[in-house]
Description:
Blueprint: E1 5-9, H1 21-35, E2 39-45, H2 56-65, E3 70-73, E4 76-81, E5 84-89, H3 94-105, E6 109-112, H4 117-124, E7 129-134, H5 139-142, E8 151-154, H6 157-161, E9 170-173, H7 184-189, E10 201-205, H8 213-222, E11 227-231, H9 238-241, E12 247-250, H10 257-261, E13 265-268, H11 278-285, E14 290-293, H12 298-302, E15 306-309, H13 314-323, H14 326-337, H15 345-350
Parallel strand pairs: 1-2, 1-6, 2-5, 6-7, 7-8, 8-9, 10-11, 10-13, 11-12, 13-14, 14-15
Antiparallel strand pairs: 3-4, 4-5
Helix pairs in contact: 3-4, 11-14
Amino acid sequence: MTGPTVVFAWRRTPPPLLIGGAEVSQQLLAEEFARAGWQVIYLGSHEAPWNGSAQFGHLRSHLQAHGTEWEETGKEVRYRWNDVHCRAVPQDRVEKALREVLAEVRPELLVTSQEGAADIAALARRSSRVAGWLHSVSANSHDVLHGSPHVALATSRFVAGRTQTPAGTQTVVFYPPFAPAEGDACLLAGRGEPGHLDADGILMVNPIPAKGSALLHQLITRLPSRRFTLVEGWWDTAREFTGYLNVRWVPRTYAMGPLYAANDLLLVPSQVEDAFPRVIVEAGLHGVPTVGSARGGIPEAVGDGGVTLHPDDVDAWVHVIESADRPYLGTQARTRAVPLIRPCLPELAAAGLIPAAADG
């Protein structure tokens, strides 16, 4: 390969198999590097790092659905996705494959995060600049700091404030990358106007206990005339909700645009300290405001494009859902979200991770 090279390496799946916000954020950044003329290698595993379960079947199905060819050599899978060179290996071969990549291309930058990232960072920092991406305040996310990356990319000011970096590691607030809203012009032209698909539609993604499913049950019961659309997240909780007459259940999907367009309020009732939920900004880009928990980085993501409340005050949630000025808050949400659609490479250059001349 020629030209500057960046490597994304972790123990989760490479693109395009998406599980949560970390996967989406890293894929978007990898694709931005590729558009800027960088050689981009994305190394991951086709086995889940949390339990070793095989993910290759899901990966293969997704590649087939998008007409993407792949090669299998031994237990390694290689393919290209949006000009990103992706490699998926078994968990016990991640470090061996990484050593091979580092020796072959000597990348200017390596980005790593999540499970086992400390070992990846420690291995790569001998020859490359290393960024440890802190996607949350969990111990799993902050473990990368034990590998002494050169820079810790904190996904919000909230995360940065909870980060204790080792000597030699710089913390930088680095908001996630975002893409323009799907069908931006046509979707937003009618936002708040008569004829919107569902003027009382309420959307929630990932209805599990940590994300506020207990509160959600109460809201669904207290607001029988409101229609709730629930989107499967980390795991399937459909059986808990499909008995309600005012609930529509949607299996996990990558095409969120139509769902944002069909609803005019997003709920983020997390019980945990979320770092900076992508879904809040994505909804805002479609003119959809958020009612969220006043915890973690949620208020930072919402700004004045919605309302934040204590997650245990059911009466307050009911009142806001019934009375919120959705068109006004939707406009505010979009104003808050649009600046986050920006070139990210200049921020990495300012942090000293890549040369300024190579930031695209």
